[in-house]
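Hi U.,

Before I forget, here's the chain from the pilot set. I'm dumping it here mostly so it's searchable later in email.
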Amino acid sequence: PPPPAISRVVPSKVQKSFNSKVLRNLGLLESRLHLVGMHDAVWESGVEEEREKFETEIPYVARMMIERWRKSLYIPKAGALDYGYQSAV
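Structure:
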């Protein structure tokens, strides 16, 4: 698959700055939800370069928490969208 269109027009440095501002302004809960959604979008894209960027840009501890946040925070909020996940336990 081709790289995301945004990567063609917005430099990586600007994207990184924007992502940092979003995470700072969202607050703890919303930033966790954002990271889970961003993780899913990157993995579903199938673009290896984007996966590598995610692994490099997102801190290790946050990456390790994504599955827990998916179950405890993301699925209860986005459950109506039903991405093939069962409701949280």
